[in-house]
UniProtKB/TrEMBL annotation, chains A, B:
One of its GO terms (biological process) is phosphorelay signal transduction system. It comes from the Bacteria. The modification 4-aspartylphosphate is found at residue 56. Pfam families: GerE, Response_reg. The keyword DNA-binding applies. This is Response regulator transcription factor. Residues 141-206 form the HTH luxR-type domain. Keywords: DNA-binding, Phosphoprotein, Transcription, Transcription regulation. The keyword DNA-binding applies. InterPro entries: CheY-like_superfamily (IPR011006), NreC/VraR/RcsB-like_REC (IPR058245), Sig_transdc_resp-reg_C-effctor (IPR016032), Sig_transdc_resp-reg_receiver (IPR001789), Tscrpt_reg_LuxR_C (IPR000792), WalR-like (IPR039420). Residues 5-121 form the Response regulatory domain.
Amino acid sequence: MTPIRVVLVDDHRMLLAGLQTLLQPLDFVSVVGTATSAAEAYATVAAHQPDVVLLDINLPDQSGVDVCRQLTETHPNLKVLALTTLQEKSYVTRMMQEGAAGYVLKNASPEELAEAITRVQAGKKYFSDEIQELLLQPEPTPAVRPLLTRREREVLGLIAGGLTSQEMAQQLFVSALTIETHRRNLLTKFGVHNTAMLIRLAAEYQLL
Amino acid sequence: MTPIRVVLVDDHRMLLAGLQTLLQPLDFVSVVGTATSAAEAYATVAAHQPDVVLLDINLPDQSGVDVCRQLTETHPNLKVLALTTLQEKSYVTRMMQEGAAGYVLKNASPEELAEAITRVQAGKKYFSDEIQELLLQPEPTPAVRPLLTRREREVLGLIAGGLTSQEMAQQLFVSALTIETHRRNLLTKFGVHNTAMLIRLAAEYQLL
DNA sequence: TTTCCTCTACTGGAAAACCAGTAATTTCAT
DNA sequence: ATGAAATTACTGGTTTTCCAGTAGAGGAAA
C-alpha cells in the first residue's frame, strides 16, 4: 500500500529533524520534503505533491494561517495539519476556517502524530486532546450579533474610530462616565472582556 | 422644470419640521415624504420614489450606515445625503463606502442644504466645509497593510483573541514587558494609538 | 567581520479601560 | 397612566494599555 506522502514545514531545522526521526519508523508515512519558510513551503509542495502537510503556524515570512489558506486553495486534495505550541482558541478556529484538517501540538507523541496523519489522510479531522478540550469550553461570545441600542451602535462606531472615552464624551456631549457605562454594556452584550475582542467581533458581524 | 423630489429621514419630528421649513421656499425642491425610523424610511422611499434622501446617521432601529447601503442597493439612482452632528472621519468614510453622495452637518444653512441637494442630484459629491477639512487632515493610517515580523503577527493574533499582555506573555513564555514592546511596535506600524483601531485595521487588511 | 534587524526586557510614568455596584431621569410601548 | 427599557451619571477601585526612552543579545545579510 502506498505510504502517505508528507511535507514538514517549520522554521526550526532541529524540530524538522526531530519530526523526521519520529516519523521514520512508520512504514505507512513517507516524508518527501521539508521547508523552513512559507516561500519554501509553496515550492516544496508544488515539487513533491504531498498528501499531508504538517504546517507550523508561526513562520518567519508569512502567517501560517495565510499559508494554510493558499495551500488548500491551490491543492484542494491536500490535508493540512496545523502544528504549534499555541493553545489559543482563536488560532484554532481561524486555521479551521482556512481549510486546515487538524491541529496538533508540538509536544505530541509519535503515536499521536501517526494517528493525526492517518485520520486526515482518510478525510477526517484530527485534534489533540488539549485542543478538543479548548474547543469544548463554553463559548464566551454569542453566536449571533447582539441587538444593540442606537446609542450603543453609535458608541461602537466611535470606539472603532479610535476615540477614547473622553473624546467620545466630547463628541456626543455627555459625561465620560456615561460612555464608560455604554462600553461596559457593549462588552457584556458581546460577551467579551476587552476592546480588542469587541472590535474583532463587531467587524465579523459587519457592525462597523 | 421638475423639482427635485426629497425624502427626509430623522427620528426627531422637530428637526424634520425645521428642515421642511428651511426647504419650503426652494421652488426647485419638493419634500415628498418624511420618516422617523429606518423601517419607515424604506417604506417612504418605496412609496414616493425620491431623487434625494437626507438621512440621519443615527436612527433608533438601525444604523444609518446600513440604511444607506440598503437604499442605494435597491434604488441605484437615489442620492443619499448623510445628515448628522458627528464630525467623525470614520463615519464619513464608511458612509461614502456604503454609497452616500454627500455629508452635511445638522447646523447647515438653507443655502448649504440647497447646494448639497442640487449637487448630488447632478451626480456630484457634496461635503460641508467642516467635513472637507476633516477629510483633508493627514491620514494617520497607512494606505497599505504594514509589513509585520513573525512575532508581531503572532502577538496581533493574540490581541485579537482578547488576551491581555500578561496572558500573552504566559502563552509565549516571555516577559509581559516584551509583549508591551511588541504592542507598541504594532501601534506604530499601523499608525494608530489604541487597540480598537489596530484590530479594526487588521480586520480590514485581513490580517486576522 | 560588520551592520542591521528582530527580539528581548527594563525604568518611570500617565492615561485609559475595565470592574461592580447603584440610581435617577427620560423615552417608548402598552 | 403605567411599566419597562434606555440613557444618563456617579462612587470607588483595580487592571491594563499607552508612552518615551534605553539597551543588550542573537541572527541574518552583505
